[in-house]
Amino acid sequence: MSLAPAPADVALAEAARPAAPPRRRPLIAILLFLTLAAMPLAVSLGVPAHWLTLVTRAMIFAIAALSLDLILGVGGLVSFGHAAFIGIGAYATGIMITEGRSEALLILPVILAACALFAAITGAVSLRTRGVAFIMITLAFGQMAYFLAQALSAYGGDDGLTLYERSTLAGFKPFANRTSFYYVTLATLAGCYALISTIVASRFGRALRAARENATRVTVTGYDVGRIRLVAYVISGMIAGLSGFLLANQTDFVSPAFISWQRSGELIFMVVLGGVGSLHGAIIGALAYLFAEDVLSGWTEHWRVIFGPLIVLFVLFTRGGLVGIIGKLASRFGSRRDD
User: Fold this and answer.
1) Neighbour tally for 139: CB within 10 Å
2) Does the pTM exceed 0.85?
3) For 254-265, what is the mean pLDDT?
4) Backbone angles phi, psi at 4, to 5 degrees
5) How do the domains of the chain map onto residue ranges?
């Protein structure tokens, strides 16, 4: 029996192979999660207490940014309606808590099923298009979800829905305590990162990346590009729904603003800021975005007027986002040590 790889697998590997794979990716990810795990200890040692809440919120959006990076950075699909999945997760949580069903083990399956259904339906339509048309259709579906949330008058409508209790987990209340909530969020983020990393490293992930580079070539090798992209879109939506669940529990409030196109744009900014295609870059981008928002909003209520041009300049004059900058600095430091 021949041990040589099949021609289709060879072509797939060649199409999916990045130009210059980073060597320090695992190290950066490990350092990142160790730093996040140490944040409660840092707060107990004197770091401002509100940082714990801020980092928790940043990790929640990092989950959504990770999910977006799966289809944007790996699959090359720019979705401008990704916040709809956050809204689905948040509203499912808010509605079930309002109706007396606060157990997370009941809420989460509903969220995952609802996000999967919405992603499957909208993805089947959106993925028939490419480029700007795909962006506009995902934006349209996102706005449909936004206006549907506004129409839910029984659950706050345009004013939003206030939650007077938080979810429980197997009868316990880990979301009621700020520190335990932090670690639940961190564990969820780590789990999502591990899951997406596994997907990206699998044959499915290589096919998705290869389809971004050359869809025709992948089709010729026998892969169904449309189905691969749809499955990735559904997985991405389900993971984003988890961030909606956590966001509703943190804010004790659900609003149509969670689903707005501006929120989808912010997720894209986070991915670009961290480094498109880099999973830990999506996490770093979310942290940087939320910290910049916190600092600039303390200066002026019109902080977006300052932050917008900074994002534009950053994208124009840097490559690879913050992860690219970190990699360059690490390379220079390593070369100096060798000298």
Assistant:
1) 18
2) yes
3) 91
4) -70, 140
5) 49-268
